[in-house]
Amino acid sequence: MEYIDQITNAAVNGESEEIKALLNKEPSLLSAFNSDGWTPLHLACYFGQVDSAKLLLSLGADIHIKAKNSNENMPLHAAVANKQIQAVDLLLTKGADVNAKQSGGWTSLHEASWLGDENMIKLLIEKGADIEIKKDDGKTPLEVAVEKKQDSAVHLLTQYLNNKA
Description:
Elements: H1 4-13, H2 16-25, H3 40-46, H4 50-58, H5 75-81, H6 85-93, H7 108-115, H8 118-126, H9 141-147, H10 151-164
Helix pairs in contact: 1-2, 1-3, 3-4, 3-5, 5-6, 5-7, 7-8, 7-9, 9-10
Organism: Priestia aryabhattai (Bacillus aryabhattai)
Pfam families: Ank_2
ANK repeats: 36-68, 71-103, 104-136
């Protein structure tokens, strides 16, 4: 695939017109994986290129596609990992599974808790994230936040858990 590097750069930089032109030449690029195992949708979401992500989704990009790397993350996980809240909101609005797991059972809420990203935690919970979901090692998002010493996330998650009871 000679165009994979070009569509990778276009997705990273939010060049929607270039993405369209490349997909017209080579439609299979929509679900092609770059050398890091990510698709154009993963990259657009990770780098917060919301317009490009919208375009890719409108053209049929798989919102639940797993990366071909050891993390096996989906575009939602990629957006959360780089604190791209607008991309996360877009993906959830378009039907991404808020409780989807990547390798190790890691969810977006685990990632946001690990990062101490309070706004992301709030958004994910508002969109239906399971606050008590466990990774493969049995740890909940709260336990991940405690382990990482993310005090504000610990406080926030504790509040949500207390309100749930």
